[in-house]
Amino acid sequence: MLQQTRVDTVVPYYERFMARYPSVHALAEAPLDDVLSAWSGLGYYRRARMLHAAARRVAGELDGAFPRTARELAGIEGIGRYTAGAVASIAFGEAAPLVDGNVARVLARLFAVEDDVASGAGLARVWRLAGDLVAREDPGAWNQALMELGATVCVPRTPRCDACPLREACEAHVRGLAGELPRLAAKARPVPELRVAVVAAHRRRVLLGRRRDELRLGGTWEPPTSPRGAKEVPLDVARRIVAAGSARVEHRGTVVHVLSHRRLEVDVFAVELAARRTPREMSDYQTWAWVPRAEARARATSTFARKVLDCAFAEVATGARRGHRQRR
Ligand code: SF4
Fold first, then answer.
1. CA 120 → CA 115, 117, 146, 184, distances in Å?
2. Ligand 1: does its nearest atom lie under 6 Å from the Cβ of 161?
3. Cβ atoms within 10 A of the Cβ of 67, count?
4. Which residue out of 160, 161, 180 has the highest number of ligand 1 atoms within 8 Å of its CB and is therefore the one to mutate?
5. Is the pLDDT of residue 69 over 90?
6. Whether residue 244 has pLDDT greater than 70
7. Poorest-confidence range of 43-47, 64-68, 92-96?
8. How far is the CA of 131 from the centre of ligand 1 (A)?
9. Is there a contact between 122 and 99 (Cβ–Cβ < 8 Å)?
């Protein structure tokens, strides 16, 4: 849950999740939809699907025996090198290294690593350094101390070298490079993606589609969306989605939602249908459901889907101005 997500955001999710699934068996037995619903709003839904699949593997194939070494843990799909090292060292006392953003920064400065530590040779170098350094005695405390040093003292732009217990051994500090390291390649800007969403309603029920597992936001429910070209008229795309000639399609606004590599700009349309129908030829969705409007947000919906629903319904309820923009 904490990957790419702040602690204060995670705490209430974590507490609810643990109350709902207090054991690996409870998680394994839960339907995926319930797990995604408990995750709803945290983003990066692949993590929830992987966690659920891992619980099923541990409870089934491994007969409830949780792997205890970094090597065994890394053999479970969804557990990466960092998580394997963290669990093996902190939970089971194995002298396994870990590298997260904080540790990479500390090691890059301590050894004046000039390569980009986010990838390639620089990342391989900090992993080697972490492996050479990890304490044989209480490796969990060692790894946590390194992460904590990076989070509180050896911070990104203004490292607090005067308060650092490593300053005399730190090459970057001695050479006056602390503020310049680590060197990171410039991040690519999120690519704009134009889409159209249709919030179709019939007698206080709303149409949601479940996204295919292999796609972005896979397994979550949302009003159907479709890409549009820069020159396409959003209304035409919306009509194509609805595929109901006489239905009135109304533009409600534009939702902007930024994901790690994409900036979604989505024109939201609302339509009241005379009969329940589902869109044809929409390959992003594996199944459809007509859900009571009041329950739509409680489904396993992403933050993006909730923005689209809010955009469609808020304006119906308040008569607010058209064409407003919502940002994450
Ligand atoms: S001396 Fe400064 S740069 Fe070096 S590890 Fe400590 S805080 Fe980081």
1. 9, 7, 22, 11
2. yes
3. 20
4. 161
5. yes
6. no
7. 43-47
8. 19
9. no
